[in-house]
Design a protein that fits this description.
By secondary structure, this protein is mostly beta strands. 3% of the residues lie in helices and 48% in strands. It has 2 domains: 148 residues, Jelly Rolls; 336 residues, Methylamine Dehydrogenase, Chain H (7 Propeller).
Length: 492
């Protein structure tokens, strides 16, 4: 009986006759070549969400930050909270109401952060909070810390500027001038601008002790040269003909920068920057999906690493969709959250941080703090719909008669079930090359301990081009290798 292996992630082409493979809430994992694996790739459910804390007020999680001293801070709507290891919230300050993303950095003594216009600071020892009031502070949508300096960019311009070295909370907020300095926190002459092109800076990133100036059409890399007049200088040849279409999509991981790009020719390609160049990591199918959205400039991105997988997660709030790129397999997948009506919506996480030994994220709607957990198979009790569409099955255009479809899945792992109410898996079929599907037919995933259960569908009719789709939504450990298909090829 032929086996159908699933070797990739989501790839639904502009035309379903090319590829109709949808992968929802699944993570492909490559099996080692020298093991006893049956297939090259196994698909596992994405990490579930385990609630760890609820903020004092409900509101959008705008920022989540793990400081260099291990402390965790969350911005919910207009409130800034310190969250301790026991998940108790302490309000440290308030911001004007807003929904924009918050950018954080710290120098070991003070945290600086921006809300898109204004700048703020938190003393890391006392947790005092205040707004940056220095006359030389020009506002910023993002901030990075590099070589003891805070670096900001003036909104709407190609200009960026730096603080004095290792400024304190009193320097930034109270304007205290040290005996060794003429200025409190900023020298008004410590400014520069993108040198390679005149487009405005929309985001900053610090990677491998280098500064990325990300514009709306181009980007360039600067480093600390130690020059007396202005310590940062552009790296020769480090000019990138890609800018950013959605500033909040910028995220870093290790030595890489990720963003939804824009350039002089167009927009909507996801790129990974490393060294002094970028690599396209989105596919034609993903890019066509993005182009169908009403807007993409509101995209929000973050990265996290769990169970050996490193993810760049990109959410489009207006389109209500979330896509995740796995750096290990270089595959994309769609992530969603199931509402009370069974509808699929963007993933709950807006921002993420690693703190207190956990991969944490903040909810885009109510600010709830969750832990990503590979051993949890719900989103805070809500079911997670896992769905995988199979490749086209074609036999030289001949009619094919399908006798049997057997899902190759991990089964029997739900504790507490009985043979009367086992969890179920659904199968749908398309004989229109993926354009439409018939009604779902369900089979058992096995009662608890029934590890040899085989979800099987019989007498499945005839087609010249058949696409199968299976889905399940159960709070249990599952995995998908693919399927076995018993078929007979006709003569015409």
């Amino acid at each position: 009986m032929p086996r159908i292996a699933l070797t990739g992630g989501a790839y639904q082409s502009r035309s379903v006759i090319a590829s109709a493979q949808r992968s929802l809430n699944l993570v492909p994992e490559t099996n080692p070549a020298n093991g006893d694996q049956q297939v090259p790739v196994t698909h596992y459910p994405r990490p579930g969400l385990r609630k760890v804390a609820t903020p004092p007020i409900a509101g959008q999680a705008r920022g989540l930050y793990a400081a260099s001293n291990g402390d965790l801070y969350e911005v919910v709507a207009g409130r800034v909270y310190y969250v301790n290891r026991d998940w108790a919230y302490t309000e440290v300050g308030r911001l004007p109401d807003g929904v924009g993303a918050i950018s954080f950095a710290d120098n070991g003594d003070v945290i600086a952060f921006c809300d898109g216009v204004r700048g703020y600071a938190i003393d890391m020892k006392t947790r005092q909070f205040g707004q940056i009031a220095d006359a030389a502070f020009l506002g910023s949508a993002s901030v990075v810390g590099l070589d003891t300096y805070f670096i900001f960019h003036e909104p709407g311009t190609a200009k960026f500027y730096i603080s004095l070295s290792q400024p304190s909370f009193d320097n930034l907020v109270n304007g205290v001038v040290e005996q060794t300095s003429t200025y409190a926190a900023f020298d008004p002459l410590d400014t520069s601008r993108k040198a390679g092109a005149g487009d405005r800076i929309v985001a900053l990133a610090a990677v491998h002790r280098e500064l990325w100036l990300i514009g709306d059409r181009t980007s360039e890399v600067w480093s600390n040269t130690g020059a007396a007049d202005f310590t940062f200088g552009s790296v020769p040849g480090a000019f990138i003909d890609h800018g950013c279409a959605a500033p909040a999509s910028v995220a870093t991981q290790d030595i890489s920068v990720f963003m939804l790009s824009r350039d002089a020719q167009g927009q909507g390609i996801v790129v990974q920057g490393a060294g002094y160049s970028v690599t396209r990591i989105s596919t034609h199918a993903i890019e066509a999906e993005f182009q169908s959205y009403k807007r993409i400039d509101d995209a929000q991105g973050y990265t996290f690493q769990q169970q050996g997988h490193v993810y760049y997660v990109l959410t489009f709030p207006t389109a209500n969709r979330t896509w995740a790129y796995d750096l290990n397999t270089k595959q994309w997948g769609e992530w969603s959250w199931t509402d009370d009506n069974g509808g699929q919506n963007r993933h709950r996480a807006r921002t993420a941080a690693f703190a207190y030994g956990m991969n944490l994220c903040g909810d885009w709607q109510n600010g709830t703090l969750y832990a990503f957990d590979g051993n949890v198979f719900t989103d805070d009790g809500k079911p997670i719909l896992c769905l995988r569409t199979f490749p086209h099955l074609v036999q030289d255009g001949n009619r094919v008669f399908y006798q049997r479809f057997i899902a190759d899945m991990q089964v029997g792992t739900l504790e507490g079930t009985t043979t009367d109410d086992p969890p179920m898996v659904s199968l749908r079929m398309s004989d229109t090359r993926g354009a439409s599907y018939g009604n779902p037919v369900v089979q058992s995933l096995g009662a608890a301990g029934q590890y040899d259960a085989t979800p099987t569908w019989n007498r499945l009719g005839m087609a010249r081009d058949r696409v199968f789709e299976i889905s399940w939504s159960v709070p249990m450990r599952t995995a998908l290798n693919g399927a076995f298909v018993d078929l007979q090829v006709g003569q015409s």
